[in-house]
Design brief:
The protein is of the alpha+beta class and 803 residues long. Helices cover 28% and strands 26% of the residues. It is globular and about 80 Å long. Bound molecules: beta-D-glucopyranose and 1-deoxynojirimycin. The site of 1-deoxynojirimycin (NOJ) has 9 residues, from helix 8.
C-alpha cells in the first residue's frame, strides 16, 4: 500500500494522507541552520550542532509521537484547524504534504478556506522561512484568526531534557513588535539568540507555554486558541515559546500571504546589548529585512531549486527502469547530501545528542557525495585524518563544532584507519587532485605534528599489518564495521557500553572482514603509489595484500563461504560449525569485491549468502540469529532475533553484495539485490516497510523478527552512499578513474541500455549504453579499446558503449 506518490518532474514525494505509518520527514538547510520537518510539520531546528545549539524543542519519546514542531492554527468560526493536520488534528477537507529538495509544502483546506504552507531554509541564511498562503474559496467573507508558534529549546538539548531544577528558572524572552526573541542564558555566557517573527502586525502574543496552553491541555487544544485570544504572557523560566496571533479577513476568492521566520543570530561579545540587559537585535532585523516579502521568499526558493538543479545535473540517468532513474537522479543523491550535512547526528532515530561524526561513517558517506561537492569532501578528509594517531589507529568519532577526537569513545575500531584510504583514493580518482596527498595533516589535532596526508594513509595500512592475530588475519579490536561484533568485550554489567568496554583483551580475535578491506584498499593504495612514482612502495603493498589474501583463503574460507572472524579463543565465527550465526554477510561482500579467490570463490560465497541470508527485502546480516546472549560475541546477541545487527537486513552492507555480483559479472543478480530494498521499488509495501519510501533506512527486520519487513532508522545511514556507488559504479558501471571515466556496466537482462550524463573533471560526458552486434566503446564517434574513456579536453564528450 502507498501513502503518496513520486512526482519526478517536481522532484517531490507527495504524501496524500496524514496518517503515514511513521512520521515521514525531510531536511531543510545546507550551511549552518538545519531543520527536520515531518509530513505533519513536526520536527525541530538547530544551528550547526544538534546537541549544543538546539533552537526548538522536540520530545523523542513523546505521546503522541511527533507532537510539537511548527504550530499553526487557523480559526474560522467555531472550527480550528492546521494546514498540516497537526497540531489541531481537525479532519481536513483535503490535505497533502510535498517533500521536495530542501523544502516542504503543506496543503490543507477546510470549510472553503485553503492553506498552503511552504517551509524552507534558504542558502546561506540562518533562518527557517514559513510562507503561509490563505485563500478564501467560499462565497462568503472569512474572518480568520491565525496563530503561528514554536517552543524554544534552552540550547543544550541534553540539559534541556535533563536538568530541570535549573532549566525551569532560566527561560527569558523579549518582545518587540511582531517578533519574539529567545534569550535564555544570553545575560551570561551565550552570545546568540533566536527569534520568531511574522511580517505583519500581530494582535497578540504569548511566550509562556503553560499560559498559552492552559492546564491539562496539549498542542492540539491550547486555551488561547480556543478562546481566540492571547494572554500577552512573558516567560519567566518554565517553558518559553513564541506564539503570534493575527487576524486575516478574506473576501470571496481573496488570498493573503504571511511570512513567518524562525532565526538564529550571534553577536560579537562586545556588542551584545543595546541597553542594560536588552539584546542588540541589529543582526536579526537585518536578517528579517532580507525576507520581508513573499517575493523575497519565492526568489530564495528559486535559488535553492537552482542549487539542486546544478548539483543533481552532475549525474543523471535515463533508462527503462523509472524507479532506478528516480533513485539515482533524485532521492539517493539527496540522501547522500543529507548524510554529508548530518552524519549520524539528527534524525527521528538519532537524537542529535549522542554521537559525534563517526570516522568510518564519514569516510564512507564521502563515497556518495564526492562527485557532488569535491571541495567540501577535501575539507572533510582533512578533518577526519586529523584525529588519527601516530601509530595509525584513530579516534572513532569527533565533534563537528570542535573537530576534536571524542575521548569518551576513544579508539580501537580496527577497520577505521582503512576507510581513510578508501575515501582518499575515491577523492583523487574523482578530482585528479593529487595535491591532497601532500596536504600537511596533524595527528590528534596537535599543532606541529603535521605530515603529508599520504603518510596518514601509509600508517593506516601499516596499522593493519602490524596488528594481526594467530592466523595472520587482522585483529578486530573493539569491533570492525559491525559495531556489535564485540569479541573482546565479555560484558555482564547492565548498561555498560559494548563498544567501549573490554573486560578481556584477548589480543587474538581476528576479522576476516578487515582482511577483505585490506586486500581491496591495500591494492588501491598500491595503485595510488604507482601513480605518484612510488613504485617500490606500491609493489611492497601488493605483496602485503597478497599475503593477507593468502591468509584469508587458508584460514578465512569455511568451505562454502567466507568466515566472519575468529573469537578471543581462536574459535571461528560465521562458520558451519556454529549453531547460530553460521554465516555473515560482510565478508561475502567485501572479500568478493576485493577479488579474494577470484570469481570461483566469489560465486560460491554469493550463492551461499543468497541461500542463507536472502529474503524479499534484501540480505540479512547473519543467519541463524542468536537467540541467547553470548558474552564472547557481544552486542549482536543483545538484540532480539531479526533486529539490527542480529539478523535484520542491515541495508548498509547490501550494496556490497550488489557490487560483489558486479565483480563476478552477474548483472541480473546485482540488479535483483539492488531493487529489493531500493526505496522506490518497495513503495507499494509502505504499510509493512513503514519508513519513508524515498530514502533508505538502516535496518529492515529480518525473517526471524516479529515484524519482518519493518524498517527503522531512516535517513542517516551509510546505505545511502554505498547504494549510490553500487548503482552508479556497479550496475551502470560509470566509475571515475585516475586517467579517465570507466564505462563498464553490469546490466540485468531486463535493461537494454541507458543514457547517462556524468560531469567529470569539467567535461560533460554524454553516455549511451546499448545492446547490439557492433560491440565496443566509441568516444566522439571513434573506437577506443578497453573500458576507459580517456580524459576529454572539451566541454562535452559523447560516449557510446555497445554491449
Ligand atoms: C547499534 C549500531 C551502532 C552502535 C554505535 C549500536 O547500538 O546497533 O548500529 O553502530 O550502536 O552507535
Ligand atoms: C551504525 C554505525 O553508524 C556504523 O558505523 C556501523 O558500521 C553500523 N552501525 C554497523 O554496526
Amino acid at each position: 500500500m502507498r501513502y503518496g506518490y513520486f512526482d519526478d518532474t517536481a522532484r517531490e514525494y507527495v504524501i496524500t494522507r496524514a496518517d503515514t505509518p511513521l512520521p515521514w520527514i525531510n531536511y531543510l538547510g545546507s550551511d549552518g541552520f538545519f531543520s527536520l520537518i515531518s509530513n505533519t510539520c513536526g520536527g525541530y531546528s538547530f544551528y550547526k550542532d544538534a546537541k549544543l545549539r538546539r533552537i526548538t524543542r522536540f520530545r523523542y519519546n513523546n505521546v503522541p509521537h511527533d507532537d510539537g514542531g511548527r504550530l499553526f492554527y487557523i480559526c474560522d468560526g467555531d472550527t480550528t484547524w492546521s494546514p498540516a493536520f497537526l497540531p489541531a488534528k481537525t479532519p481536513l477537507d483535503h490535505c497533502r504534504c510535498r517533500h521536495g529538495l530542501g523544502y516542504s509544502v503543506f496543503e490543507g483546506g477546510k470549510n472553503g478556506v485553503s492553506a498552503e504552507l511552504t517551509v524552507t531554509v534558504p542558502r546561506h541564511t540562518d533562518m527557517e522561512l514559513q510562507k503561509l498562503v490563505l485563500k478564501n474559496e467560499s462565497t462568503e467573507e472569512k474572518k480568520l484568526t491565525v496563530y503561528g508558534a514554536v517552543e524554544w529549546c534552552l540550547w543544550n538539548a541534553v540539559d534541556d531534557a535533563a536538568n530541570f531544577q535549573r532549566n525551569w528558572n532560566i527561560g527569558e524572552v523579549e518582545i518587540e513588535g511582531s517578533t519574539v526573541f529567545h534569550k535564555t542564558e544570553y545575560r551570561e555566557r551565550r552570545n546568540h539568540y533566536a527569534f520568531y517573527s511574522v511580517n505583519a502586525p500581530v494582535d497578540g502574543f504569548d511566550t509562556d507555554r503553560d499560559t498559552f496552553l492552559g492546564r491539562f491541555r496539549g498542542w492540539s487544544e491550547p486555551r488561547a486558541v480556543e478562546e481566540r485570544t492571547s494572554f500577552r504572557s512573558i516567560a519567566a523560566g518554565w517553558a518559553p515559546i513564541a506564539a503570534l496571533r493575527l487576524s486575516v479577513t478574506l473576501a470571496p476568492g481573496e488570498s493573503s500571504t504571511l511570512l513567518f521566520r524562525l532565526g538564529y543570530a550571534e553577536n560579537p561579545p562586545g556588542r551584545k546589548f543595546s541597553a542594560p540587559d536588552v539584546v542588540n537585535k541589529e543582526r536579526a532585523y537585518a536578517m528579517l529585512a532580507a525576507y520581508e516579502t513573499p517575493a523575497q521568499f519565492d526568489a530564495a526558493l528559486e535559488e535553492l531549486k537552482a542549487y539542486w538543479d546544478a548539483l543533481l545535473s552532475r549525474f543523471t540517468v535515463r533508462s527503462s527502469e523509472d524507479k532506478l532513474d528516480r533513485m539515482v537522479n533524485i532521492w539517493n543523491q539527496y540522501q547522500c547530501m543529507v548524510t554529508f550535512n548530518m552524519s549520524r547526528s539528527a534524525s527521528y532515530y538519532e537524537s542529535g545528542m549522542g554521537r559525534g561524526m563517526g570516522f568510518r561513517d564519514s569516510c564512507q558517506d564521502l563515497l556518495g557525495f564526492v562527485h557532488l561537492i569535491p571541495e567540501r569532501a577535501r575539507e572533510r578528509i582533512h578533518d577526519i585524518a586529523s584525529i588519527q594517531s601516530r601509530d595509525g589507529s584513530t579516534y572513532h568519532q569527533y565533534q563537528p563544532l570542535t573537530k576534536r577526537g571524542n575521548a569518551d569513545v576513544g579508539s580501537g575500531f580496527n577497520d577505521d584507519p582503512l576507510w581513510l584510504v578508501a575515501c582518499t583514493c575515491a577523492y583523487v580518482r574523482e578530482t585528479g587532485d593529487f595535491s591532497i596527498l601532500d596536504e600537511p595533516t596533524p595527528f590528534n589535532n596537535e599543532e606541529g605534528s603535521e605530515v603529508p596526508l599520504m603518510e596518514h594513509l601509509r600508517r593506516s595500512l601499516n596499522y593493519t599489518l602490524t596488528h594481526r592475530g594467530p592466523h595472520g588475519l587482522p585483529l578486530i579490536g573493539r569491533a570492525d564495521w559491525n559495531d556489535c561484533l564485540n569479541l573482546n568485550c565479555f560484558s555482564h554489567t547492565p548498561g555498560e557500553s559494548f563498544q567501549t568496554c573490554s573486560n578481556y583483551e584477548s589480543g587474538k580475535a581476528e576479522s576476516v572482514f578487515i582482511a577483505g578491506m585490506f586486500v581491496k584498499y591495500g591494492r588501491e593504495y598500491a595503485e595510488l603509489c604507482e601513480r605518484i612514482g612510488l613504485s617500490a612502495e606500491g609493489e611492497k603493498m601488493r605483496a602485503a595484500a597478497g599475503e593477507i589474501e593468502a591468509a584469508t583463503l587458508a584460514h578465512g574460507w569455511d568451505g562454502e563461504w567466507f568466515l566472519r572472524a575468529y573469537d578471543a579463543f581462536e574459535r571461528p565465527v560465521g562458520s558451519r560449525e556454529n549453531d547460530e550465526g553460521r554465516i555473515f554477510i560482510e565478508p561475502q561482500g567485501f572479500c568478493v569485491m576485493a577479488g579474494i579467490g577470484g570469481t570461483e570463490y566469489g560465486k560460491r560465497a554469493l550463492a551461499s549468502a543468497e541461500a542463507h541470508l536472502g529474503n524479499e527485502f534484501g540480505m540479512e546480516v547473519l543467519h541463524p540469529c542468536y537467540t541467547t546472549y553470548r558474552d564472547y560475541i557481544g552486542e549482536i546477541s543483545s538484540y532480539p532475533p531479526g533486529y539490527k545487527e542480529n539478523g535484520s537486513v542491515f541495508c548498509h552492507n547490501n550494496p556490497w553484495i550488489t557490487l560483489a555480483y558486479c565483480t563476478v559479472g552477474d548483472g541480473d543478480a546485482a540488479f535483483n539485490m539492488y531493487r529489493r530494498n531500493a526505496p522506490a521499488y518497495i513503495e507499494d509495501r509502505s504499510e509493512v516497510h513503514r519508513t519513508e519510501p524515498y530514502c533508505y533506512s538502516q535496518t529492515i527486520a529480518g525473517r526471524q523478527a516479529r515484524t519482518f519487513g519493518e524498517a527503522k532508522n531512516s535517513w542517516l545511514t551509510g546505505t545511502a552512499a554505498w547504494s549510490f556507488v553500487a548503482v552508479s559504479q556497479g550496475i551502470l558501471g560509470i566509475r571515475p578513474d585516475y586517467d579517465g571515466l570507466i564505462v563498464d556496466p553490469s546490466l540485468p537482462k531486463c535493461m537494454d541500455g541507458f543514457h547517462a550524463v556524468r560531469l567529470f573533471r569539467g567535461t560533460r560526458y554524454e553516455i549511451t549504453v546499448r545492446r547490439g552486434e557492433d560491440k565496443g566503446l566509441r568516444v566522439d564517434g571513434k573506437p577506443v579499446g578497453g573500458k576507459t574513456v580517456p580524459l576529454a579536453s572539451g566541454a562535452v564528450c559523447s560516449v557510446e558503449l555497445v554491449i
